[in-house]
Amino acid sequence: MDFSLKDRQWQKLRRILERLARSNHFQKERLQRAGFPPTSLEDFSARVPFTRKSELVEDQLIHPPMGSNLTAEAGAYTRFSQTSGTTARPIQVWDTAASWEWLLENWQEGFRLAALEKGMLTYFAFSFGPFLGFWTAFEAGVRYGLRCIPGGGSSTQARVRAIIEHGAEVLCCTPTYALHLADVAKSEGVQMSASRVRKILVAGEPGGSLPGVRARLEEAWPGAKVYDHYGMTEVGPVAFAKEGMDGALRVLEERYYVEVLTPGGDEPVPEWHIGELVLTPLGREDWPLLRYRTGDIVRARRDSDGALWFEGGVLGRTDDMVIIRGVNVYPGAVEHAVRTVHGIGEYRVTVSSRGSMSECSVEIEVEGDAQGDSAARMVSDLEAAFEKAFSLRIPVKPVPLRSLPRFELKARRWVRG
């Protein structure tokens, strides 16, 4: 029998729910309050409550150190990860061998979508640490048949040398760090024409689906093509760029039940409208999440084959948006505007209050004389780009090259003045 996608999703979810109702203390209580069992995906969405990050944090404080969101016996959990803790206390996440294998399968599907070939030499410019995305990408690469080099604790200079000397064909890192690697290579006298990198897989922060950021990366790495990825430690790898499809992410719908709702609300939004992403993984049942409010803002659409895409990747976060003189401003939109202006290095946004109104200003790094004609042109061009994007005048100040912080992990460019 040929089951539809919804039928397949419901079969997987129903099996998971039945197991959780028997074996998972955290989820069992929530399902009982919802009136278990739901009878369909629609009934699941109508009756099962959202899961929020704050609830997971509280559960781990009450049931230290692992929390009660465990479906298997404690001794079966072999892999530890944790969230970055940029918006709350870090969440500790434990996976069994089975759940970890499911995560690796997701990444391998991402490699297929990006048309990576077995045997490609791949450099992972990560320090690894406790972050799930780094380890799953690397281990999935090994399973996929890539030749994998871990950057580990190497300096940026050492990573640049390794990428060039080993002839890496694929680079995996954050968008910010890919630009930083190219900047350091230039300062070290390395000719980027010597690079054999042809595919750059970026993750960890928004940007790889934005035309301005993608163009800037491909200019910094001549001959390379950028592929974006979206995932979270809490839910795993969710969506990937596909070869030949720029500016959008293909969602692994066989592996996730996806809802896009009004930000902070519970009403579904139509296709092409902006909404908050709510996810239920359909395979990580030993550390499960039901209707997890990610806080990430997306614009979802379906193509003619029914596949689900996030147009423009992840557009921002509900908690990242700032209101500047009555205008909603997302960091991703600022990033796109900055990357459309040639010659800008790193940047920083300062948000301040004037009475009941918020204001923001931007510092940009420029080469050479920060008071010269070139700097003045960049300031003028970026202020014009902001005016076009937001109908706001946002003041821009040039600062010397390499005077602003650099980031290997998620960039933190927004500060409060």
Q: Could you say how many structural domains there are in total?
A: 2
Coarse morphology = globular
Mean pLDDT equals 92
Structural class: alpha/beta
* Ends distance: 61 Å
> How many helical elements?
11
Report the CATH superfamily of the largest domain. ANL, N-terminal domain
CATH architecture of the largest domain: 3-Layer(aba) Sandwich
Which topology of the largest domain does CATH recognise?
A: Rossmann fold
Q: What Rg do the Cα atoms give?
A: 22 Å
The main β sheet shows up as:
12 strands, mixed
- Proportion of beta-strand residues: 25-35%
Helix fraction bin: 25-40%
DSSP strand tally: 20
Which segments are poorly predicted (pLDDT under 50) over 5 or more consecutive residues?
none
Give the CATH level 1 class of the largest domain: Alpha Beta
Overview of the structural elements:
This protein has 417 residues and is of the alpha/beta class. It folds into 2 domains: 1-315, 3-Layer(aba) Sandwich (Rossmann fold), CATH 3.40.50.12780; 322-416, GMP Synthetase, Chain A, domain 3. Helix content is 33%, strand content 27%. It contains 11 helices and 20 strands. Strand 7 (225-232) and strand 8 (236-242) form a beta hairpin. Helix 1 (5-23) packs across helix 2 (25-34).
Structure keywords:
417 residues, alpha/beta, Rossmann fold, GMP Synthetase, Chain A, domain 3, 12-stranded mixed beta sheet, 4-stranded mixed beta sheet, globular
